[in-house]
Design a protein that fits this description.
single chain, alpha+beta, six-stranded antiparallel sheet, four-stranded antiparallel sheet, 40% helix, globular
Length: 431
């Protein structure tokens, strides 16, 4: 498969009863501490090439440009580590020893408020938007919940994917309300004549490494198939929004359904098998073949309802089991909601997901050593490495994804229009 620049954005939530009562925003305090630390680079950027900023009441981290599904997992998990470190620093500086600050990576709060977990993919501008994406990508996006759903309690019921449940249309320009399976935002952060940034809002905030890997591996492969014009026979859906709403309210795969334009019904797993067969022709390395087999086995296990086996890699299943176990241990008001939210706590010493990982219940696809290195270092094979190097070597006065303005005795603008660029290919030009 061809490399593809991609990444994720997550709005993390800090919560402290004491701070909330005092009207103090821990997200702002955390960002101030970040700028004072050795993790800081320039502007809103940190040393590992990611962007950290304040967005609608949350600390948001956009990962550095990565070029593979494996790297997405590494740098997304590095973001979690940074958030947890900031949580500890805020506790140490502003709170007493008996007062806790909590940090969550999820999509909804108990009061029903939702917030973002977005994916970004660099795609060819030649693909007609949104027509080609509605026809060829949407069938994947509305059925991949089967193995990429995070699970959540919303409206007093358990849903397999909170963001699918909260998505209201096929195409939308909104990012906070009335969101679509496809988002029309067109900010390529690259040469616009050549690339589009596909901005997806329909994915969940995931803790599970395998689920993140499968989400990006499958979507990356399908985008390559689209660019290669290899999806002419893709199944045509009659009402994808209606079907995805129905499907994410049912844990039993036998109740899932997708209605095709010709009136026939198939399962989401069948749609996924269509894509799997197509992506199989693209895989070249042993690593890619291994993930393809994982995708295939996951679909088999879903059909065979092997839920205990799947829980180690399918988050909505494991979260459900964790909630049920908590309810059995403690019969108290809102214990299920508390367990649901604690599952997404990013602290390894507090989070329910991480306690289950420590117990060997979660499959891993990257190592702790890789994640810790990515806390400080950017990916070496994308523009992120070049942008970091420019920040290290110059006094930066302005910075964005696709340019850096430096002042070494005179202002110079360095354009970075190619997200795959790792070396400087132009002279510095006056800003």
């Amino acid at each position: 498969m061809r490399p593809r620049v991609q990444g994720t954005e997550h709005e993390y939530t800090f919560y402290s009863r004491k701070m909330n009562q005092m009207g103090v925003d821990p997200h702002i305090l955390a960002l101030d501490l970040l700028k004072e630390s050795d993790l800081y680079s320039a502007g809103e950027w940190i040393q590992n090439g990611s962007r950290a900023y304040y967005d609608v009441g949350h600390l948001e981290i956009s990962t550095a440009e990565t070029s593979s599904a494996w790297d997405v997992v590494v740098w997304e998990k590095a973001g979690e580590k940074i958030v947890d470190w900031l949580r500890k620093k805020v506790e140490e500086k502003y709170l007493g020893p008996d007062v806790k600050l909590w940090a969550f990576k999820n999509n909804t709060s108990p009061d029903g408020t939702s917030y973002g977990s977005h994916e970004n993919y660099c795609v060819s501008r030649k693909l007609p938007f949104p027509e080609a994406f509605v026809r060829e990508l949407v069938p994947h996006l509305v059925t991949r919940f089967a193995y990429t759903g995070a699970g959540d309690l919303i409206d007093r019921k358990y849903v397999l994917s909170p963001m699918v449940y909260l998505t209201s249309s096929v195409v939308s320009g909104e990012t906070m309300h009335s969101t679509g399976v496809l988002n029309t935002r067109d900010e390529p952060h690259a040469l616009p004549q050549r690339w589009r940034r596909l901005h997806l809002l329909v994915g969940d905030a995931l803790m599970n490494e395998t689920a993140i890997l499968l989400r990006h591996f499958t979507t990356t492969g399908i985008l390559q198939l689209m660019e290669d014009e290899a999806l002419a026979d893709v199944p045509v859906l009659a009402d994808p929004v209606k079907d995805m709403w129905h499907n994410v309210e049912h844990m039993n795969p036998e109740k899932w359904r997708i209605t095709l334009k010709d009136g026939s019904e198939v399962s989401p797993v069948e749609i996924q098998r269509y894509y799997l067969a197509k992506v199989e022709a693209l895989v070249e390395t042993d690593e890619e073949r291994q993930v393809l087999r994982l995708w295939d086995k996951t679909l088999d296990d879903l059909e065979d309802r092997k839920s205990k086996e799947l829980a180690s890699q399918v988050e909505w299943l494991d979260r459900y089991f964790a909630i049920q176990e908590a309810a059995e241990e403690k019969d108290a008001f809102d214990v299920e909601m508390m367990a649901c939210k604690q599952y997404s706590e990013v602290g390894q010493d507090r989070g329910l997901y991480y306690s289950r990982q420590e117990a060997g219940k979660m499959d891993r696809v990257v190592t702790d050593e890789e994640i810790l290195e990515a806390v400080y270092e950017p990916p070496r094979n994308t523009r992120a490495a070049l942008r970091r190097r420019l920040c290290d070597e110059h006094k930066v006065v302005a910075i964005d994804w696709s340019y850096v303005v430096v002042d070494d005795g005179g202002r110079k603008r360095i354009n970075l229009p190619d997200p795959y660029q790792t070396e400087l290919e132009e002279e510095l030009v006056a800003a």
